[in-house]
Amino acid sequence: MALARRPPPELFKLALNRWTQPFWEATRQHRLLLARCADCGHARMPPTPFCPRCQSQHLRWQELSGAATVYSFTVVERAIMPGMQDHLPYVPAVLSLAGADGARLISNVVDVELSAIRVDMPVQVVWDDVPDQQVAIPRFTRVPEHPVR
Amino acid sequence: MRDATAIVGLGATPYYKRGMSAPQTLEELVGKTVLAAVQDSGLQVRDIDGFAYFAGGFDTALLVETLGIPEIRFSATLTGTGGGSAGAIGLAAAAIISGQADVVVCVGANQQGAQRFGAITSAYPATPENAFFSASGLVGPGHMFALLARRHMHLYGTTREDFAEVAMAIRANAVSNPNATLRQPLTREDYFKAPMLADPHCLYDFCLENDGAVAVIVTSAERARDLRQRPVRVLASHHGGGSDWGRSIYWMNMPDETFASSGHTMVARRLYAAAGVDPKDIDTAQIYDHFTSQVIMQLEDYGFCDKGEGGAFVRSGAIRREGGSLPINTDGGQLSCGYVWGMTHVREAVEQLRGTAVNQVPGAQLALVTGGPSVIPVSGLILAN
């Protein structure tokens, strides 16, 4: 059976603005942050300059546990551009973040048997450091069924 | 807008396999198809006084210089991407109705020698927004829409058998179309043997990657009466969409009831109201088929069946030209005939309503055309003869 691998690292292209910078800076310490409106509490991903519910520009950052469930996923098994071949198969996924009122993150399920990946499967964040950018990419893997002793 | 304007000219290049239109340039393909549409209409090049585009559009100044158009009074582009193909006709109609132009060209074209559309998202610039999906390896729309397809399967029990039915029904139309890129019949066995590109999307769930151009000419209903072709009346064209869809595949935060959809619900409702018709009145639909799963979701959003029933609807044979209640993509669609960012669908609707289609739907009077489910605006168009 095949394990879900990681997509080609060179696909990640970091660009920041003042609304997304705190999210990426926190990844350096492997902390997953959620943007919430400081006025009405509405959660939004990715962070944007205005709250879509009350138009406020005030943000507060909530640290999340990194627990999530798989909302949807796809398995990429075939290269459609140069450089992909050595990274297949990988699993882009949409994750519902726990404690985030349904806000979702686009990421990957990694290091899990492909046949075991399911919608609604509980997963947990793992971090892939990107040293030259001084950030880390959050990805998600299976929660162990039995706690490690 | 209803019945105030008509499509009077139609031009198209051949549908080339990706990269095979060289050494012609993209501008040359556009020029050729505009000239072909003018010729078809019985108008003259000097009559053109407007351009209405979508998906970035083209350089009107260069077209005017190249083609020898004396004066332009209207030049506008719908924002967004392939979602605007059906809506560009509405942009042209708006220009004519408001007196800003008389003869407006709508043209779409693509040439994929340098950048294939299948991997286009990987070529997007680094922006703060794109940084939230670029790491995940979603390098093309086919990867992204696979996430919506999976969710639709999870919520409603849609299966790959349903996707196969869409691919086979549309291929059957390409088999008898000499202009089509893929003319071999597609069997269920072929479908399930095909490589999986982005599970649950296999090779035959993906549209083609062609080079080509299609142009139509829109003018007032009054002027249309005296021209060469039987006018194809513009009953309604609408573009837009809701904040619950928004950036859609680049955002993935659509509410659960919208996520597994095509984002067309609001546009469909307004379109039918503006045209004064119901889904049951539509004789043939040209549904933007970049992916089979999105055909199913558009059939739901355009009210041909209930939400979640799209799989059962296609399974019933409803979309087949032989024996179906709603023949779709009668030229073979973008899945099997040709991909020109949705403009092939406008072309085929015009051919059906002129009565000149290769796979003519007998007595077709009303045709629906949809623009590509993608970021808003998405768009729809209802034409009549």
Q: What would you note in describing this structure?
A:
The complex is a heterodimer of chains A (149) and B (385). Helix content of chain A is 5%, strand content 36%. With 149 residues, chain A is mainly β. In chain A, a hairpin with a 5-residue loop joins strand 1 and strand 2 (43-44). With 385 residues, chain B is an alpha+beta fold. Chain B has one domain: Peroxisomal Thiolase, Chain A, domain 1, CATH 3.40.47.10. Helices cover 32% and strands 17% of the residues of chain B. In chain B, the strands form two sheets. In chain B, strands 1, 2, 3, 4, 5, 8, 9, 10, 11 and 12 form a ten-stranded mixed beta sheet that branches. In chain B, helix 1 packs across helix 2 (60-67). The longest helix of chain B is centred in the N-terminal third of the chain and has 16 residues, at 26-41. Chain B is globular, with a radius of gyration of 19 Å. The model of chain B has no long low-confidence stretch (mean pLDDT 96). The chains are: A mainly beta (149), B alpha+beta (385). At the A-B interface, strand 4, strand 5, strand 6 and strand 7 of A face helix 4 and strand 6 of B.
